[in-house]
Amino acid sequence: MPRAMVNGINLYYEVTGDGFPLVFSHEFAGTCKSWEPQVRFFSRRYQVITYNQRGFPPSDVPQKASDYSQDILIEDLYQLLRHLGIKQAYVGGCSMGGNVALNFGIAHPEMTKALIMIASGAGTTGRDTFVPSLEDLAQQLEARGWKATAEQYAQGPSRLQYKRKDPRGWQEFVNELAAHSNEGSIHLIREVIIKRPPVSELEAKLKQLKIPALIMIGDEDEWCIDPALIMKKHMPGAGLLVFPQSGHVINLEEPDIFNRALLDFLTTVESGKWVIR
Fold first, then answer.
1. What CATH number is given to the structural domain containing 78?
2. Residues 136-150, mean pLDDT to the nearest whole number
């Protein structure tokens, strides 16, 4: 079981394949397993790196709230890449991991050949309902834990699309979510997701981020549509791809479309034909 001591904790990671590095950072409700369809596809051409962020066993689960923040997650990824001897990579992520990827690119543009942001930026708009809903989830986890909460969470309005399209995959997602660390998830909700800066506050930094970027969202993922449009508007190298009748985890809902679209983006970048305005 490969684990790297980085930023004061042990992070579990997996490296599959050879070639230019392609890193995927998972969402709040996922783990490195969330990228399995992408690992199997892209490891034919790339060195694919996935990992469990802090708070997700078998990575360490720090007990102090002060050991969690978006900046800490960014530093975890930076130190993991340094540990692996990677000087530059394609950096992608979904949801919470997409925010990590975006802000990693802002902090370390020299290490980021291109960015892939999937279902990222929730909480940028509608914070008056977004924040209370997350605090309610944190309180449910304190009272009942993931074992009693996972299926209800997975029935959310941006998750039902996955259940409709792939009921077996959705059930596997529920089972894995039920085994997540309650303590780690509570800290991630309160210290990372609620406190991270909305995408709307990053306008000046986005305008300076002159690297290729692919933004992907589902058209039924309500929380992520506005931030995707903000990123597209202000990032000089951004392209936006919208998946029809799709929710939050489009890499699992539509793995074939997702993989082919991402491969097309990467090969366009490699040919020097991706436009940066």
1. 3.40.50.1820
2. 98
Find where tokens 């930026």 sit. Answer: 121
* pLDDT range class, residue 2, cuts 50, 70, 90: very high
Q: Could you give the number of structural domains in the chain?
A: 1
In a domain, 265, yes or no: yes
Q: Which residues form the domain of 222?
A: 3-125+198-270
**Within a domain: 151:** no
pLDDT tens by residue, 37-80: 999 999 999 999 999 999 999 999 999 999 999 999 999 999 99
pTM of the model: 0.97
What's the rounded Cα separation, in Å, for the pair 163 and 159? Answer: 7
Q: Is 193 domain-assigned?
A: no
